[in-house]
Write a structure and sequence with these properties.
The chain is mainly alpha-helical. Helices cover 64% and strands 0% of the residues. Helix 1 runs antiparallel to helix 2. InterPro entries: Pur-cyt_permease_Fcy2/21/22.
């Protein structure tokens, strides 16, 4: 469970950055019709940087759990 919580923390960081920075806290900017159409989705460049940076905090903290 501790490994899952570290992954969830990274995932939450990505979601928060996208919602607050890129979508300006506006839920109407989400297009629900294309959520499962791979060709119409962005390739995820905005998620790569927060995902990598979140591990800068996660990796030193795993020593306490293991």
């Amino acid at each position: 469970l501790s490994r899952i919580s570290y992954w969830a923390s990274a995932y939450d960081a990505i979601l928060l950055v996208e919602h607050h920075h890129f979508r300006k806290c506006d839920f109407s900017t989400y297009n629900h019709a294309i959520w499962n159409v791979l060709g119409r989705l962005p390739w995820g460049a905005a998620a790569i940087i927060p995902g990598i940076l979140s591990f800068a905090l996660i990796i030193p903290c795993t020593n306490q759990v293991w």
